[in-house]
Give the backbone structure.
Amino acid sequence: MQKQQLIQHLYKIVAKTSVLVDKDELHPYECDGLSAYKFLPWLVVLPESIKQIQKIVKLCFDNNIPIIARGAGTGLSGGALPQENCLILSLAKLNQILNIDPIARSAQVQPGVRNLAISAAAEPFGLYYAPDPSSQIACSIGGNVAENSGGVHCLKYGLTVHNILEVKIISIEGELITLGGQSLDSPGYDLLALITGSEGLLGIIVDITVKLLPIPEKAQVLLAAFDNVLDAGKTVGEIIANGIIPAGLEMMDKLAINAAEDFAHAGYPKEAAAILLCELDGTIEEVEQSIFAVKKIAEKNNADSLRISQNETERALIWAGRKAAFPAVGRLSPDYYCMDGTIPKKCLPEILDSINKLSEQYNLPVANVFHAGDGNLHPLILYDANIEGELERTEEFGAKILELCVKVGGTITGEHGVGIEKIDQMCIQFQSQELQQFHSIKAAFDRKTLLNPGKAVPSLHRCAELGGMHVHDGQLPHPELDRF
Ligand SMILES: Cc1cc2nc3c(=O)[nH]c(=O)nc-3n(C[C@H](O)[C@H](O)[C@H](O)COP(=O)(O)OP(=O)(O)OC[C@H]3O[C@@H](n4cnc5c(N)ncnc54)[C@H](O)[C@@H]3O)c2cc1C
């Protein structure tokens, strides 16, 4: 079908103003949070209802038009990056909180609802939604499900996948399918877990029921500063080994501390080599006991200074620095590249040392921010895309970091997804047998490979060419899947 014909069909489904075709209107959709990669979309559609989405998806299916779902576009792995001749399906207008059930402790929401808006709506009931990506002021819950997003509080309360009950999707054939259920468990294969983190490759998420938790009686954050990273790393290990489960356990190195402090004025000690932010929550007694225990562990590991929030304003201020760390680091250079890998916690000092050596080798500064409690690293590589070859050097440096993560038993992504960014590293993380299973699942949901093509799961040929794996007997399970 020609583009003009498609537009005429779309006008019959949604208002003309909801179909964007002019360059000026399309520019805001040319990238996600990973702005190193840009591509002007072919067409953007903004439906307002499930019925409209069903009709659009069916139209695309019948005419073999690929679809890229888009939430708020804050993704950091190029998941919502437009591709040639693909329709961008924005879920931004489906932004209603449909129901809050304080007895079931759940909320039914549309995919375009902002993460933070759920907790704001639940607060009058003494409830909140736990997963809190640093982008929570802007990112959509649909995007959170598609990426299985995490955040500071996921150490104790789990990732998105642990905090949802039911998801409704539109299949590529335009059918409405319910995954999971309103109770704690549902029979059959766990398709709810499968759709979580599927990066727009298996269906369009149109309705989500999330779990809500009671707002804890008390929460306090302890800020510990160290003059070397090793001591901070040891403190993390001992806190966990002592059976303490912090609500959040974050670490930042010197460059990140300085950037965050200059930006947010959170009172971070700028001379420290590393800081730990450890939040404890629960009943008043629980918090008092845990704060005391964490303080002792930090002191034993040579913490230079300790600060404990005494009220909600102080707690918010201490977190403000961490939550603003990415944009704060962004002020240090024209561009930055945010990596996302996980490692076993015990490898933290070793990996940091290797990252610093690589930083010298590539002559590119790195600021390190991480969810230390779950071993999720976010090295932020500073570069200037206007300098010829610097982006390529940055990408190579980033790839080396991810390879290091896999080498020590970690993974190439903790929470930002694979998207377009880490697709080659998937060949290092997985063997051909595992990738074949991924392709079989994709084929079961999307036999024409129309949903977010070219993202998240590499073709077997691509991996074979990169030398990361071998295709058995030269056979591909679904040769038609290998065209991207
Ligand atoms: C400053 C900053 C801080 C961040 N901090 C964190 C953090 O702490 N933790 C974390 O996990 N992430 C973080 N992120 C990354 C990002 O915010 C998350 O990945 C978020 O979940 C993306 O949501 P979105 O609505 O912006 O999705 P988008 O970027 O629009 O899309 C992301 C992916 O999901 C797919 N998708 C979106 N909506 C749907 C849908 N309804 N149905 C099917 N597929 C869909 C898209 O196709 C794409 O593949 C951060 C980003 C920034 C810019």
Observations:
- The CA atoms of residues 385 and 391 lie 5 Å apart.
- Residues 32-33, 68-76, 79-80, 91, 111, 133-135, 139-140, 142-144, 146-147, 149-151, 199-200, 204-205, 326, 415-416, 452 surround flavin-adenine dinucleotide (CB under 6 Å).
- The chain has a mean pLDDT of 93.
